[in-house]
Amino acid sequence: MPLNRIAVYPGSFDPVTYGHLDIIQRSLRIFDQVIVAVARNSQKNSLFTIEERVALIRSVLQDEPRVSVDTFTGLLIDYVAARKAHVVIRGLRAISDFEYEFQIAQMNSSIGHNIETLFMMTSVQYGYLSSSIVREVCALGADVDSFVPPAVKTAMLAKYGIQSPRSTT
Ligand code: ADP
């Protein structure tokens, strides 16, 4: 019987960027199905509501039938087990990501459920890219074309009430 290899890619995705999308596309080369799981219990002050974040991810990945988008509350490992997956994907950009991710992965593996965390190195062109940086530069009027898909850019400009951002080219 062929294996159906499922991975869960959790995060805040506030909003989804080309850095996230790159991790998703690369994960699809390893897994049959990727579940993008937007965390509901994030403490962070968010720009987009959970529903808006889910809708944006769905709209940019609508042509990818092997990706589904969901939300979760509570412990990630409980969610992963409930979805009958065994692998969590996380992206690593810098050493600063490593410390935190290492702690979480170890904690998750000690809590149980036999869940593995798989780390993917950022692609070199996205090493500096984070949702928070994109929010910051967008709010200040820079063009975010090279960081987020057009639908996300439009949604960000609407949130910030910006009509025509300054071009970076
Ligand atoms: P969180 O709040 O859980 O860190 P994010 O939405 O910021 O959620 O990120 C989700 C995951 O995507 C994390 O593992 C993060 O390291 C990874 N990620 C974010 N941006 C990039 C990027 N530019 N390249 C590679 N991985 C990234």
Description:
By secondary structure, the protein is α/β, with parallel strands linked by helices. It has one domain: HUPs (Rossmann fold, 3-Layer(aba) Sandwich). It is 38% helix and 18% strand. The protein is built from six helices and five strands, in the order βαβαβαβαβαα. The chain has a five-stranded parallel sheet, sandwiched between helices. β4, α4 and β5 form a beta-alpha-beta unit. The longest helix is centred in the middle third of the chain and has 17 residues. The radius of gyration is 16 Å and the shape is globular. The N and C termini lie far apart (52 Å). The relative contact order is 0.19. The model has no long low-confidence stretch (mean pLDDT 92). The protein binds adenosine-5'-diphosphate. The site of adenosine-5'-diphosphate (ADP) has 16 residues, from α1 and β4.
